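[Discussion] Sanity-checking designs against the backbone

I'm trying to build intuition for which residues belong where. Below is a structure token string of 212 positions. I'd appreciate it if someone posts a full sequence so I can compare it with mine line by line.
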């Protein structure tokens, strides 16, 4: 009975997410990735769409790729932080976090990068796609103990089957997920990189907005 209820819960979650209003298409040098943006995080959804409209992600690059962790695109931390140092009068602008307990770092999730600011606010111009690893019950138990937070049963099941990065949950805003082209994301995450995690061959992408 418990397994049946868990499967029904996962199915319901999938049906709810499938009703999201905006999708975007990442056209990359490895192929296409379709990403669904969450209406549950309207601030990040709209912030991201404005960045796309402004051309932030035109001929952009996945410029930091860590195998079995994330593929990061947009501006690098150093680029953002150095610009802020050069222009202190502009301040360090961040976007308020939208941390939702139902949105988590499963494989294929789209997240917003940030620095170590205490409010966990996001950069305006940095995103990442989650790769991660399949987790065991023991690993998930250890994360629960360390973070003093219970991982919901349906999320545990996803982490144990598809994988992800559970220890980042509730620390970084997740605002979308891949719905088509996960194999392309896997190919990007597997590219050869240098010691600084920069791909040896640039992985370029452009983003097109698709409204359902």
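Best answer:
Here's mine. Compare freely.
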């Amino acid at each position: 009975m418990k397994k049946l209820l868990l499967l029904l819960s996962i199915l319901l979650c999938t049906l709810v997410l499938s009703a999201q209003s905006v999708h975007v298409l990442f056209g990359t040098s490895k192929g296409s990735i379709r990403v669904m943006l969450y209406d549950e995080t309207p601030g990040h959804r709209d912030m991201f769409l404005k960045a796309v409209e402004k051309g932030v992600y035109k001929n952009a690059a996945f410029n930091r790729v860590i195998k079995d962790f994330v593929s990061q695109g947009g501006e690098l931390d150093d680029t953002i932080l150095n610009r802020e140092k050069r222009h202190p009068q502009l301040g360090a602008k961040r976007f308020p976090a939208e941390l939702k307990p139902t949105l988590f770092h499963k494989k294929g999730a789209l997240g917003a990068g940030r620095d170590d600011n205490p409010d966990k606010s996001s950069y305006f111009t940095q995103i990442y796609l989650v790769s991660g690893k399949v987790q065991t019950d023991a690993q998930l138990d250890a994360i629960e103990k360390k973070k003093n937070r219970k991982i919901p049963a349906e999320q545990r099941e996803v982490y144990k089957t598809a994988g992800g990065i559970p220890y980042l949950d509730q620390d970084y805003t997740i605002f979308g997920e891949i719905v088509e082209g996960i194999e392309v994301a896997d190919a990007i995450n597997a590219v050869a990189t240098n010691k600084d995690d920069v791909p040896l061959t640039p992985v370029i992408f452009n983003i097109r907005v698709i409204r359902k």
